[in-house]
Amino acid sequence: MAVAKALPVNGQRRGTGVRDAAAQATRKAILKAATKVFARYGYDGGSVEKISKAAKSYDRMIYYYFGSKEGLFIAVLEEMYRAMDDAETAIALDAGRPVETLTAVIRFVHGYYRKNPEFVTLLNTENLHKGRHIAKSLRAGEYSSHAIAVIREVLASGVAKGLFRPDVAARDVYLLIASTGYFYMSNRHTLTAFLGEPLETAEAVARWEAFAIDTVLRAVSAAPLSP
């Protein structure tokens, strides 16, 4: 008796589509598990065995999809940058309101670090390794280029309206925004002990964000802002 073949679906046989979906699900599960394991144990302590167990998968699948533990760690970092880049694209850029738009960018960056503590932890880990893993990424530069392009567009709008200085580099503004958000989040525990005051309360976070916004706007302003 003849065996019926799977009918094509969108140019592929049904079996192929199911296998592709299963492969993507497995890869996604490994990435999700690796993010949590690396964030908890660091790169050195985040073993392939821990990750495969957390993903309910097998060690060989990690090597199949990512080549090595380092390849997986790079993929985790790339995924974290990609997710931030995707979220950033949702910011409404209004060329007619550069001050408000730059303020929105600052609030987004600060808020993203607060909402994604694993990202901060992974960045800390990679900096301990002097960035040697992310330096091998072929995609990381794409995400940083987009972030700086957004700020460059906002600054150009402000310059055209006579609101911002023309001699400020988008790269420098990006570093200023990122540092005020990242440093506060990554060092909040030690700073709380050092300063003797809690830095994770809503009031403390709001006060720092407002100060950061004022600092950035003063740095780019064509004229001194009123105190």
In short:
This protein is an all-alpha fold. It has 10 helices and 2 strands, in the order ββαααααααααα. The protein has a two-stranded antiparallel ribbon with strand order 1-2.
Describe the protein's architecture and organization.
The structure is a single chain. The chain has 10 helices and 2 strands; from the N terminus they run E-E-H-H-H-H-H-H-H-H-H-H. With 227 residues, the chain is mostly helical. Helix 3 packs across helix 4.
What is the mean pLDDT? 89
The global form is: globular
Name the helix and strand elements from N-terminus to C-terminus, one letter apiece.
Answer: EEHHHHHHHHHH
Indicate the radius of gyration in whole angstroms: 22 Å
- Judged by helices, strands and strand pairing, the structural class is mainly alpha
User: Helical content, roughly?
Assistant: over 70%
Reading side by side through the largest sheet, how are the strands ordered?
Answer: 1-2
Total helical elements: 10
How many strand segments? 2
